[in-house]
Amino acid sequence: MQEIGNLNKLTGSEVLLLVAEGDGILHTYASARFKPLVMQSEGRALIQSCMGA
């Protein structure tokens, strides 16, 4: 995750990283533009629907 944060800071790119564990635990990193996708309930619901949950 730290490397993704560095990529965001060094290049100014917008990044979204989702890591889903086998037991359904989701880890995320999101730059400012994608932060609402992982922080707001609508975004979390979209992610869950894409994962088949």
Automatic annotation (TrEMBL):
GO molecular function: DNA binding; protein dimerization activity
Gene3D superfamilies: Transcription factor, MADS-box (3.40.1810.10)
Sequence intervals crossing the membrane: none
Family matches, as InterPro entries: TF_MADSbox_sf
GO annotation (BP), single: positive regulation of transcription by RNA polymerase II
Descriptive protein name: MADS-box domain-containing protein
